[in-house]
């Protein structure tokens, strides 16, 4: 038995037609995230507070899913996902391994398909204060307030930013200053300097796309990936064409970043 957490507003649809494979797992595979039902209620629903940070519609409910013992699933710690270290195994083996861990916090199971309506065992409410936030053992650790970690609209986020402003929050330097830094970085350009300048461009709504497009051919993948995040929020004409070209990049991280930007 597994538990999948979803917004309360999705409960009628889940009862009627199951769970859609809206999530992306390792290697970009679409499917459904879930977690085994363990003797500990807190561990079973450990992801609730972390998922609630990203917004819900009416809170979260627990969907109990019954899978066949031999159903292939991916299991591992959430940090293993980025390293392609999650392993494919039968569902019964995933339950056994996670249940035997001394600390299963942060572990997840990914079902690489949709969940049918007949596989839904029941849907029940869950306390909205169960589990960890940010990462396991984060309690007592000062949260990061950078643009990549914080979530706009999260409870207490404005007060946290006012109390702990991040040095990269802005306001960004003028465009001419940033372009001068990129020109001064040389050819093909120092990756650290280019990434720092591109970060500031990501805080703008529009920008000189024609002056940055050449970075799509930079030999360092991290620069090309930073270019994706820099321009993906712009309303400047030509951004989508650039992202489409980067979606065919030979580096997987760059491709995934461009594909994610195109989907938004």
Automatic annotation (TrEMBL):
The protein's organism comes out as Streptomyces kaniharaensis
Q: What domain of life?
A: Bacteria
> In its UniProt entry, what is this protein called?
HEAT repeat domain-containing protein
The record ties this protein, via InterPro entries, to: ARM-like, ARM-type_fold
* Annotated region described as Disordered, given as residue ranges: 1-25
* UniProt feature, compositional bias: Polar residues: 1-10
């Amino acid at each position: 038995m597994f538990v999948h957490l979803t917004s309360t507003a999705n409960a009628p649809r889940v009862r009627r037609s199951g769970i859609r494979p809206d999530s992306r797992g390792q290697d970009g595979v679409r499917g459904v995230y879930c977690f085994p039902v363990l003797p500990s209620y807190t561990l079973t629903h450990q992801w609730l507070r972390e998922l609630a940070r990203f917004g819900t519609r009416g809170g979260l409910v627990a969907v109990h899913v019954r899978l066949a013992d031999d159903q292939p699933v991916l299991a591992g710690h959430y940090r293993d996902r980025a390293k392609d270290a999650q392993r494919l195994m039968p569902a019964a083996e995933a339950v056994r391994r996670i249940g035997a861990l001394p600390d299963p916090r942060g572990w997840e199971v990914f079902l690489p398909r949709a969940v049918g309506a007949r596989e839904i065992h029941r849907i029940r409410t869950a306390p909205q204060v169960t589990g960890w936030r940010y990462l396991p053992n984060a309690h007592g650790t000062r949260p990061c307030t950078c643009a990549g970690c914080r979530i706009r609209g999260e409870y207490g986020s404005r007060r946290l930013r006012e109390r702990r402003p991040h040095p990269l929050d802005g306001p960004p330097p003028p465009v001419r200053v940033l372009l001068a830094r990129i020109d001064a970085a040389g050819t093909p350009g120092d990756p650290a300097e280019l990434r720092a300048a591109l970060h500031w461009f990501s805080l703008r709504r529009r920008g000189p796309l024609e002056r940055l497009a050449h970075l799509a051919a930079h030999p360092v993948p991290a620069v090309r990936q930073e270019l994706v995040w820099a321009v993906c929020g712009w309303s400047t004409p030509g951004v989508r064409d650039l992202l489409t070209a980067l979606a065919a990049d030979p580096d997987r991280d760059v491709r995934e970043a461009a594909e994610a930007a195109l989907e938004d």
